[in-house]
Amino acid sequence: MSTDFQPIVYLLASHQYGTLYLGVTSNFMQRLYQHREEIMEGFSKEHGIKRLVWFEAYDTMDVAITREKQIKKWKRQWKIDLIEKENPDWRDLAVDFGFDMQPSTRLID
Known about the structure:
It contains four helices and three strands, in the order ββααβαα. By secondary structure, the chain is α+β, with helices and mostly antiparallel strands.
């Protein structure tokens, strides 16, 4: 799968069952890099959300945006179910694209 300039909807997590971030992009590698390096200000940077746990590729940006809007309306558990259907261990999928594994940001009590 070519990941440059292909519409992709993705979910990032701070850790297993942690804070989730849903996004859509047409340049997946660049966007993952931005999240992981905390280049852009916003929710994912504020909450340390860097682990890629789910993604889907689409043929057009219109379809990807529609899917993102659909998932944004979902309950949290439905998003967790979506992740666990394909990635039950919440593995950092960005490693498959050459990124270093991100440690969990879960605070230990």
